[in-house]
Prior knowledge:
Chain A is built from no helices and 11 strands. Chain A has strands at 5-7, 10-13, 19-24, 31-37, 44-50, 53-56, 65-68, 75-79, 88-95, 102-103, 107-111. In chain A, strands 2, 4, 5, 6, 9, 10 and 11 form a 7-stranded mixed sheet that branches. In chain A, 0% of the residues lie in helices and 49% in strands. Chains A and B meet through strand 4 and strand 5 of A and strand 5 and strand 10 of B.
Amino acid sequence: EAGVTQFPSHSVIEKGQTVTLRCDPISGHDNLYWYRRVMGKEIKFLLHFVKESKQDESGMPNNRFLAERTGGTYSTLKVQPAELEDSGVYFCASSQGTGELFFGEGSRLTVL
Amino acid sequence: RKEVEQDPGPFNVPEGATVAFNCTYSNSASQSFFWYRQDCRKEPKLLMSVYSSGNEDGRFTAQLNRASQYISLLIRDSKLSDSATYLCVVNEYGNKLVFGAGTILRVKS
Lengths: 112, 109
């Protein structure tokens, strides 16, 4: 069975550009989460979808970040315009109900 | 003050050693507790859940002290393959996980 997959694995962009990260959760998992780890810091929660609805977006840093999950399947996280401090690893995770979270390998974003 | 605090290490130990990691958390209303393992440039993976009664999985033993808001992980008979970063993780509510910064373990032959 495929795990959580994320694309791209690594993205290098310039400040002011736009990047869109994609996450495909494990099939059948209604819960999808975005987390990120910026350099030297701990992994932090960004938001939580239940199917296509945003359950909790309290961790989203500002309005330059937009997450969507149309149709309740895959999700995208768009950063527009990107700033230097957005560099880090963006992890997606999915779960069946409130069970174990399974993480993807992450998308490493470098903003120059 | 960080919500979940861990000693970053690194802990450098020889094979076969016993090593213990500790973690404290600030939110007394936290619901559940975990240790995750993260290998270099990989995703975090659940190692084990942590209960007040203590739980053991092979060479790994985890313990929770709710009164002290303290979580521990004990690894016995360390293997080279145990080298990784160990993340103390607290579930505040609804799978909103709060991560510690991690403790680096290096097991050497």
